[in-house]
């Protein structure tokens, strides 16, 4: 029934209004004395050196990829968990096969040292 | 026959607006006073007094903080990507404030012959004499938690400051890692409840403390709570903020209300996490003698106190330890727990 | 009432997907894409498919887009995007127009035909969307489900090989 989802929409609207309202209100009543030094990025009081948009470690990228893959595994687990008692032993075996295959991948990731942070 | 809008009576919509407003204001007040409680509790744990000057024992401190933040200067760094910089606090705030919509916080109340479930996104079916809620409630909360990462990544990236970028990145990697473990930990709860509807999960835990899923799934309960604390960047996992090394990380460049929004989002997330843990593992609003909503609030506040206690007790994790804990300890443990639950449940039957 | 709601959501979806391709800053494009995913999730909800909606938000908006945002930040693309060649614009425009024409043409032909399911809306709501999907997935489509795990395994190995310089 769609009516049950409506409150979420109402909450989104309220949260948006609250957030926008407080930001706009504070920027209206707050003081404004910008200066060149004040608008520089913070770097312990020194002149900023170089740009912040540096390339960063590929580690983060790998974590994001692994997250997607295991997240998809989790998405498959949810409907299975709901039905697991109705599916019986057969369901347990099929999900067991699924988990074991992915666990092989997990062991591979571990052995390759992709989870190490030096 | 009364008039129906989208298949539901007008009374439903009146009740819904009332529930939304009450819950929103309640969460907002809880967030405001959680900041006060945190300073006070940690103060006393460290044999200090905490805030004392604003009102009796500093009770007006959150209001003073709010007024101060409103009057602060709004700084937008000249190097920043403006649109993302302005949007990031909102992106952090909105998911934090909408995820409590599916949590049941009390026994259904009957007003003038019309039953109102104490759950925002739910309705009572008069014909079937049954409460219906969103039947993927838990996943809705997980999805919203997953969106919280954008606010932080955007804030870190758009500020164009080295500290912010490092804080934002660390935070993103930490949040996704622990979100995964938290998401897998609760699978074993669904195996017992055979449903993703929070109403059903709470109903399953009725009838005494021994029915709580915390006792049937202790490992899942502990892992879920720890992962949730890590996911919302609370101490001891507050690497992204790490005051001493990253000078507040992703929100280094933020000031005024925009800075306050990240804090509100963080505390609102803490309230949500405690409410979800209560609902999934601690019997939800069920309890003897007192009305349901009182039990619910008591349990949630007890967990919030636990969060603060943890903050006062433990030192911060190192980043490599943190990632190791998430990926090498919790992830395999949750999968093992799922398999073990499956085998035991099949054997018992 | 529902059709008005659909039109609003669809309009936002189209608008944000136009923004995806027109935004100068790749991060803003990525944000617009997240918005499009949200609108799609909302449309799934109106079609009584809440599990699809949540999965859409969890996997697409919550995971894949995080990766895309990471990649944008990793590659450090300059804000002023390189001006694209006119051939590419022409080819893209032609394909787009062709697809639009095709869609309009097929819709204009009248009723859609094809196999319909055995359940109607009320039954889907009653049994539960996630139960229905699970039942189909774990009984009728067992083999594709198991093959998915092989696919995920291949992707895991691929991700590690791509990311690690020394294997």
Automatic annotation (TrEMBL), chain A:
GO molecular function list: NADH dehydrogenase (quinone) (non-electrogenic) activity; NADH dehydrogenase (ubiquinone) activity; quinone binding
Origin organism lineage: Bacteria, Pseudomonadati, Thermodesulfobacteriota, Desulfuromonadia, Geobacterales
Entry similarity comment: Belongs to the complex I subunit 3 family.
Species for this entry: Geomesophilobacter sediminis
Cell location: Cell membrane; Membrane
Principal location listed in the UniProt entry: membrane
Annotated transmembrane regions: 6-29, 60-81, 87-109
Keywords: Cell membrane, Membrane, NAD, Quinone, Translocase, Transmembrane, Transmembrane helix, Transport, Ubiquinone
Any Gene Ontology CC annotation: plasma membrane
Catalytic activity: a quinone + NADH + 5 H(+)(in) = a quinol + NAD(+) + 4 H(+)(out)
Reported function: NDH-1 shuttles electrons from NADH, via FMN and iron-sulfur (Fe-S) centers, to quinones in the respiratory chain. The immediate electron acceptor for the enzyme in this species is believed to be ubiquinone. Couples the redox reaction to proton translocation (for every two electrons transferred, four hydrogen ions are translocated across the cytoplasmic membrane), and thus conserves the redox energy in a proton gradient.
Subunit (UniProt): NDH-1 is composed of 14 different subunits. Subunits NuoA, H, J, K, L, M, N constitute the membrane sector of the complex.
Membrane topology: Multi-pass membrane protein
EC numbers, comma separated: 7.1.1.-
Protein name, as recorded: NADH-quinone oxidoreductase subunit A
PANTHER family to which the protein is assigned, alphabetical: NADH-QUINONE OXIDOREDUCTASE SUBUNIT A, NADH-UBIQUINONE OXIDOREDUCTASE CHAIN 3
TrEMBL record, chain B:
GO CC annotation terms, alphabetical: plasma membrane
EC number(s) reported in the record: 7.1.1.-
Membrane-traversing stretches: 12-36, 83-107, 138-157, 178-198, 210-230, 267-287, 293-313, 325-348
Keyword Cell membrane attached: yes
UniProt entry keywords in alphabetical sequence: Cell membrane, Membrane, NAD, Oxidoreductase, Quinone, Translocase, Transmembrane, Transmembrane helix, Ubiquinone
Quaternary context: NDH-1 is composed of 14 different subunits. Subunits NuoA, H, J, K, L, M, N constitute the membrane sector of the complex.
Protein name: NADH-quinone oxidoreductase subunit H
Species the sequence originates in: Geomesophilobacter sediminis
UniProtKB/TrEMBL annotation, chain C:
Family label: Belongs to the complex I subunit 6 family.
Transmembrane regions: 6-23, 30-47, 53-75, 87-107, 141-163
Protein name per Swiss-Prot or TrEMBL: NADH-quinone oxidoreductase subunit J
Catalytic activity: a quinone + NADH + 5 H(+)(in) = a quinol + NAD(+) + 4 H(+)(out)
Keyword line: Cell membrane, Membrane, NAD, Quinone, Transmembrane, Transmembrane helix
Subcellular location(s) per record: Cell membrane
Mode of membrane association: Multi-pass membrane protein
Assigned EC number: 7.1.1.-
Molecular function per GO: NADH dehydrogenase (ubiquinone) activity; quinone binding
Lineage: Bacteria, Pseudomonadati, Thermodesulfobacteriota, Desulfuromonadia, Geobacterales
CC per GO annotation: plasma membrane
Claim: Membrane is one of the keywords in the record: yes
Protein task: NDH-1 shuttles electrons from NADH, via FMN and iron-sulfur (Fe-S) centers, to quinones in the respiratory chain. Couples the redox reaction to proton translocation (for every two electrons transferred, four hydrogen ions are translocated across the cytoplasmic membrane), and thus conserves the redox energy in a proton gradient.
Primary location: membrane
EC class: translocase
């Amino acid at each position: 029934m769609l009516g049950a989802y409506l409150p979420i929409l109402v909450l989104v609207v309220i949260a948006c209004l609250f957030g926008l309202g407080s930001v706009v209100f504070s920027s209206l009543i707050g003081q404004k004395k910008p200066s060149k030094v004040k608008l520089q990025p913070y770097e312990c009081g020194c002149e900023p050196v170089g740009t912040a948009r540096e390339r960063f470690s590929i580690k983060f990228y790998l974590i994001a990829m692994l997250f997607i893959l295991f997240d998809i595994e989790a998405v498959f687990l949810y409907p299975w968990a709901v039905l697991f008692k109705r599916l019986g032993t057969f369901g347990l075996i099929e999900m067991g096969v699924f988990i074991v295959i992915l666990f092989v991948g997990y062991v591979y990731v571990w052995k390759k040292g992709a989870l190490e942070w030096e | 026959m009364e008039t129906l809008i989208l298949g539901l009576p007008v009374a439903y919509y009146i009740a819904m607006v009332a529930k939304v407003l009450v819950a929103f204001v309640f969460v907002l007040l809880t967030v405001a006073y959680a900041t006060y409680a945190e300073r006070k509790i940690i103060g006393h744990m460290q044999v200090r007094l905490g805030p004392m000057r604003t009102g009796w024992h500093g009770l007006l401190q959150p209001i003073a903080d709010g007024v101060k933040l409103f009057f602060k200067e709004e700084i937008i760094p000249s190097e920043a990507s403006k649109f993302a910089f302005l949007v990031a606090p909102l992106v952090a705030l909105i998911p934090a404030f909408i995820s409590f919509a599916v949590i049941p916080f009390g026994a259904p109340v009957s007003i003038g012959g019309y039953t109102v479930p104490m759950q925002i996104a739910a309705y009572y079916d008069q014909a079937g004499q049954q409460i219906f809620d969103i039947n993927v409630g838990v996943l809705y909360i997980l999805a919203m938690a997953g969106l919280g990462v954008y606010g932080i990544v955007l804030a870190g990236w758009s500020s164009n400051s080295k500290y912010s970028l490092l804080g934002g990145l660390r935070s993103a990697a930490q949040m996704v890692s622990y979100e995964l473990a938290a998401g897998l930990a609760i699978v074993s709860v669904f195996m017992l409840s055979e449903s993703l509807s929070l109403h059903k999960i709470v109903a399953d835990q009725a009838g005494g403390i021994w029915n709580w899923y915390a006792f049937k799934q202790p490992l899942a309960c502990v892992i879920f709570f720890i992962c949730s604390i890590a996911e919302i960047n609370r101490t001891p996992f507050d690497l992204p903020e790490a005051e001493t090394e990253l000078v507040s990380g992703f929100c280094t460049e933020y000031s005024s209300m925009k800075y306050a929004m990240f804090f509100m989002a963080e505390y609102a997330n803490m309230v949500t996490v405690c409410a979800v843990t209560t609902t999934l593992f601690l019997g939800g609003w069920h309890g003897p003698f007192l009305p349901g909503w009182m039990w619910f609030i008591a349990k949630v506040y007890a967990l919030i106190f636990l969060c603060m206690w943890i903050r006062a007790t433990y030192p911060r994790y190192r980043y490599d330890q943190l990632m190791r804990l998430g990926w090498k300890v919790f992830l395999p443990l949750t999968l093992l727990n799922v398999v073990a639950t499956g085998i035991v449940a099949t054997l018992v039957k | 009432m529902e059709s008005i709601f659909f039109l609003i959501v669809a309009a936002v979806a189209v608008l944000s997907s136009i923004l995806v391709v027109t935004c100068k800053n790749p991060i803003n494009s990525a944000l617009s894409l997240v918005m499009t995913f949200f609108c799609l999730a909302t449309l799934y909800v109106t079609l009584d498919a809440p599990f699809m909606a949540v999965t859409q938000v969890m996997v697409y908006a919550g995971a894949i887009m995080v990766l895309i945002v990471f990649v944008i930040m990793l590659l450090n693309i300059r804000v002023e995007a390189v001006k694209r060649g006119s051939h590419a614009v022409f080819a893209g425009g032609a394909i787009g127009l062709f697809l639009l024409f095709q869609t309009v043409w097929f819709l204009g032909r009248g009723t859609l035909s094809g196999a319909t399911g055995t359940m109607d809306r009320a039954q889907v709501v009653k049994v539960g969307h996630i139960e229905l999907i699970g039942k189909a997935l774990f009984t009728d489509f067992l083999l594709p489900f198991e093959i998915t795990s092989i696919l995920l395994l291949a992707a895991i190995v691929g991700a590690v090989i791509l990311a690690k310089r020394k294997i």
